[in-house]
Amino acid sequence: MSNWGFVRHSRTSLSLLKTLRFQQKAHLGSTLSSFFFFSTSGEGRAENENPVRPAPPPIRVGITESSGRGVFATRRIGAGELIHTAKPLVSHPSLSTVQWVCYFCLRKIRNGGGDEPQSVRFCSEECEQQAKSFRGVETKADWLAFDDYCRSLGLKYPLLVKRFACMVISGALAADLLDILQPASLSPLMISNMEEGFDLLRSAFKAANFPDERMAFLTKEWYTGVLARIRINAFCIEFAGGLYGDLLLSAAASVEAEAAVGNAVYMLPSFYNHDCDPNAHILWIENVDAKLTALRDVEEGEELRICYIDASMSHDARQTFLSQGFGFHCTCLRCLSGD
Ligand SMILES: C[S@@+](CC[C@H](N)C(=O)[O-])C[C@H]1O[C@@H](n2cnc3c(N)ncnc32)[C@H](O)[C@@H]1O
Description:
Helix content is 28%, strand content 13%. By secondary structure, it is an alpha+beta fold. The chain has two domains: 14-87 and 266-336, SET domain (Beta-clip-like, Beta Complex), CATH 2.170.270.10; 90-264, no CATH class. The strands form three sheets. The chain has a four-stranded antiparallel β-sheet with strand order 1-4-10-9, with no helix packed on it. A four-stranded mixed β-sheet has the order 2-3-11-8, with no helix packed on it. The radius of gyration is 20 Å and the shape is globular. The two termini are 33 Å apart. The structure holds S-adenosylmethionine. This is SET domain containing protein. It holds the Pfam family SET.
């Protein structure tokens, strides 16, 4: 069974990034900002404007010529500028770091660990409060078999589906929230490999006696559809630069050769296409809230692209990774140049 090992990382090897520029003509597309959870630095806000409401980020979602939807700059964006931040729709710590990071925001916890291997921790009352709805559902069920299934097969994405399902049952999220995101195309074998996870998830909720009407959304099609979207759109969360690293966290993570603190799916960041020589970057400083920044000056109308993979890989390795993990052949300028 595939271990779904292809995840989007924050890592781009800047030293190897060439100065090739990529400018793509955007078609007019409707903006999807009403769907997005974002905040901005508030730059450009008029003085008399309500200070509580942040200015919209300088981007729009439009249609690209060859890569479906993409994100375009609505004004010139300077190198190093914070384009916007994004809160996750769904996130989950890695099983190997669950004792060491906040169960809600994935922030490292100084005195994590402890005696109870199954226990979860929060970094603040606010996070505990925000997790209350899905925890109220999650703690009613027994997850031993489901978590063992994920652990033994090295699966991370079913954990995101589990949390998403808990949020839906609690009424915090709509079951079709992720439908707008592009799904991976799944082979019949991939779908049949997902059956065990679905059965375990559904059984856990069933055994906890949730009423059928609250679980009506939880069909096999829903489960595989959500996983298909997560596969293309989830980010693997690693904090930037090791600045906020923690030896204990590193030690815990290395037990399973897992550097990431967890995985998350966002709305707006999901619309950024890939480039092996990107002009934008997604990073995490101390928790799961993502920051999208410009790596170089970007002109108004230019498409903003991030790198999904380690850009220091060879041309052939990048192509193989993108094709097997994301199902597309990369035709960015760097790839076309043969670099
Ligand atoms: C995370 S989504 C990006 C948004 C997507 N274009 C959409 O319409 O929702 C990733 C998908 O976008 C497309 N894509 C992203 N970067 C691409 C590239 N460099 N070349 C071709 N297709 C790309 C692929 O279909 C890929 O699976």
